[in-house]
Amino acid sequence: MTNRRSTLYRVTFTGWLILTVAYALVFTVTSRSTGADSLITALINTLPLIPLTIAIAAVQAPLSRTHLAVQVPAQILLASLFAVIWYTMVIVLLGLRTGNLSVEFIVRPFRSQALAWQIMQGLTLYGLAAALGWTRLAFAQSKEETSQTASSTRKRLLVRSDEDLTPIDVDDIIAISRNGDFSEILVDHATHRVRRSLAAIETELPPEFVRVHRAHLINLNHLDRAEPIGAGRLRLLMSGGHTIDASRAGTQALRQQAS
Fold this sequence. Notes:
Layout: H1 2-31, H2 35-46, H3 49-64, H4 68-98, H5 112-152, E1 156-161, E2 164-169, E3 175-179, E4 182-186, E5 191-194, H6 198-202, E6 209-213, E7 216-219, E8 223-230, E9 233-238, E10 243-245, H7 248-257
Antiparallel strand pairs: 1-2, 3-4, 3-7, 4-5, 6-7, 8-9, 9-10
């Protein structure tokens, strides 16, 4: 959770910095003001966006768990509030800047054209803030799914032999080969024959297992050496003295594993 928040803060700050520079350049070109004045005006426009963006991005996660009939009006309401609150904070800060605080504090609303432009900017920036929240949420969900997939990979396979069930440690498996309607699981001193497809077993194995042939899966942790045998293929010398010939596609998959 801490990493997610720090990422949100970093992205928000980076976006704010870019937006501030852009505003300062626009004010310098359009109003012919000095660089310092343009920067102050830019900060007045962008500083309120920091807490607003963080709040809007953070609220997307709980909002995503609601029904679509709730999400749509909620997003419309939040977008409106975002634009209005930002506009209000900007004109208040401008009043603080232009007024003489010892005797007066003048807050002047924008003219109609400037107000419309400000509201449009607010709605656009709300969309970016909401998109940031949804991107953060999607990334977190992706990491969670990856973690769940990794944790759900079985450490042992349960093999049926007649009426007996034999557990096999996945780390001890050297290779698994297809033989007709059966799959043969090769360990150091034995071969277990099971009536399951190679594809079905593959889904339960960790990434160390690579399909080197339509009929063969190998455990990279038990690969001692690979020798070329021509035609773009490799002969795999496995632990225990076992050998398996990889297909061209399997050879290519192995080469992709090489660093």
